[in-house]
Every structure is written in C-alpha cells, then in structure tokens.
Design goal:
Blueprint: H1 3-13, E1 17-20, H2 26-38, E2 42-46, H3 49-55, E3 65-67, H4 75-86, H5 93-102, H6 104-114, E4 119-121, H7 128-139, E5 149-155, E6 166-170, H8 180-198, E7 203-207, H9 218-233, E8 238-243, H10 245-249, H11 251-257, E9 269-271, H12 275-288, E10 292-299, E11 305-306, H13 314-330
Parallel strand pairs: 1-2, 1-4, 2-3, 4-11, 6-9, 7-8, 7-9
Antiparallel strand pairs: 5-6, 5-10
Helix pairs in contact: 1-13, 2-13, 4-5, 5-6, 6-7, 8-9
C-alpha cells in the first residue's frame, strides 16, 4: 500500500471535517466529490450553492455541506470572533463582516478557529501568501513553535533510499533564506511531521554543498551552525550535517564521506539550506524521478491549514486533504 493510500485509511478511521474555500475551481470540486465518495473526510464548500452546482455539473456533491457566507446564521458569531481576535489591530464589526463575506479564505479559517471545521486546504487558485495570511492572523502559531514552514512529502517509486523511497523535503515552500536558528527550527518541525505522517523514525540531514568540512564558505557555516543548534534543541532526534545529498541518502557514499556516522546515508528528512534549493530539489524529484509530491504542507500553525500549488491536479488536492485530516487527528 502506497503512502497516500495509508494516509487515506488513517483519515477514514477518525473522520474530520475539511473546509475548501475555492469552490470556484473545478479541480477543487472534483477532489471534494472523490473525497466524499471514498469516505475519507467530511467536506465543507464555501460559496454560492447555485454557482457550485453549475460548475460541478456531473459531479456528486450531495454529501458536501455548502455554506454561503452571505446567507448563514453563523456569520454574526464569526464576525464577533474575528473582531475579538483582531481588536488590537483596530478591527471593527463592519470591517469583519466585509472581510468574511467577500474573502472566502478568511471565512474558512474563521470556521476552523471556531471549531466548525478541523482544517482548511486552499491554493489551487490563491497564492501561498493569500492562504497563509488569514491563517497566521486568526489561528496563529502552534505552542512552542518559533516558525511556520512548509514541506513536501516526496514518494520516489522503486527507491531503496529514505523510508522505502519516502522523504520529507523542507523548507520547499515558504521560508526564503532561513538563518541558523530558523533552519534548526525547520529541522525540528520536519522531524515531528515525518513521525506524524510516515509513522517511522525521522533521520534528519542538514544539506549543503559540503560534507563535514569538505568546502569552506559562509553558506556552509550557516548549515554547520544550524546543525549545532538543532542537536541542542532536539536531543532525542537523529540530526546531523552538513551533508551533500548523496552523503545523506546513499549508504555507501555516507560511509565514505562521513565514516562512523549513524545518520549519513540513512536520512529520510532532508533540510535544504534555502527555499531556492528546496523548491528546485522537490521539482527535480517530481519531474525526473516521477516522484509523487504532496504539498506544500505547512507546519507550525495552531490548526492544520495547507497550501496547494496552482498547477495542482484534483489528485493532488485529494492527497493534501487526506494529509490535512491526519494532521488534525494527531495534532
């Protein structure tokens, strides 16, 4: 059974409710129909019922709950909640009502905050910034979390490396150029996410173009410093670096370049030094190795909110919805 099939089965054992604000996107409706037909989660679609029915013609959305922000008795409660959360920023009831009825992402995130949904998936149409802005304003960061970051679950077919070909690539979607402290925080969050989703022990490699001092550069120094901080912050997690990619995942290369290490050559969580490397890396694996790539999955928000690539397929959305449900179950 493949990674996403296992995730779906886990989601079915503890049915959660996921809200989808992008009801004006056919891929989203196709994914919702499939999720409901497979019994993976409950689905809430935010939008106008007639518009959804027209766009979703030919799809079975009969089991979906459709909520129109302009026609729901929950609106006043959400207005009050948003005003309370944003009062320090001068939010008025009039402003809150205007935002909630015009911006479906804010409405969906407020639903999650109110406990009427367990998580949200967006990004097929909206940018990452549009998806995360209301999430950070309303849900905020999880306890003991310094940084919100994003990762991809990469599943490489017929691969003996990682966890039977399954990896987390992080940060591949959000933090542009993390400093050593931020890179260490990304490593800790990613290890937790790997254990949560893959249910295997995380083995974390801090990646660089250098392995254990083979090159000298300020970029290498950043990764060395991040590795030291991460080891101090997360003593129970297997973390080491700096490693080149081959030294991190190929046992023979790891043994040659970092002899005596119990991490080199065995990594399944790959921490990239910056967003350029992480984004390029996951797309190389996806396009050249024909890997499944699920994400960007966010980590560090108080409740599960996940982004999508605007080039995503309905299959991708189904996978991210299932992952979001499992995150909600194990938060």
């Amino acid at each position: 059974m493949g990674f996403i099939d296992v995730i779906k089965e886990r989601a079915k054992k503890d049915i959660k409710t996921i809200v989808l604000p992008e009801s004006d996107d056919r891929r989203t409706l196709e994914a919702a129909s499939r999720i409901l037909s497979e019994g993976i989660t409950n689905i809430i679609l935010v939008g106008n019922k007639d518009s959804i029915a027209k766009l979703g013609q030919g799809l079975d959305l009969s089991k979906a709950t459709i909520i129109d922000p302009n026609n729901t008795d929950k609106l006043q409660g959400y207005v009050d909640l948003l005003v309370e959360i944003r009062k320090s920023k001068g939010m008025t009831p009039e402003q809150a009502k205007d935002i909630l009825t015009k911006d479906y992402l804010y409405f969906a995130v407020t639903m999650v905050k109110a406990g009427d949904a367990d998580g949200m998936v967006s990004g097929a149409v909206h940018s990452t910034a549009d998806t995360l802005r209301p999430s950070l304003q309303i849900l905020k960061t999880a306890p003991n979390t310094k940084l919100v970051s994003a990762f991809f679950v990469i599943v490489v077919p017929n691969c003996e490396f990682g966890a039977d070909g399954t990896f987390i690539f992080s940060d591949s979607g959000l933090v542009q150029n993390p400093n050593p402290e931020e890179l260490a925080a990304i490593a800790g969050s990613s290890a937790k996410s790997f254990r949560q989703l893959v249910e295997r022990e995380p083995v974390v490699a801090m990646l660089s173009h250098s392995t254990k001092g083979s090159a000298s550069h300020p970029d290498v120094d950043k990764v060395v410093a991040a590795t030291k901080i991460a080891k101090e912050l997360y003593p129970d997690v297997k973390i080491d670096g700096e490693y080149q990619l081959d030294a991190a995942i190929v046992p023979s290369v790891g043994a040659s370049k970092a002899p005596g290490s119990d991490i080199a050559g065995k990594a399944n969580v790959l921490i990239f030094p910056d967003l350029d490397a992480g984004n390029i890396g996951y797309k190389l694996a996806q396009r050249l190795a024909k890997a499944e790539a699920y994400g960007p999955i966010t980590q560090g928000i108080a409740k599960p909110v996940n982004d999508l690539s605007r080039g995503c397929t309905a299959d991708d959305i189904v996978g991210v919805i299932a992952i979001t449900a499992v995150q909600a179950s194990t938060n």
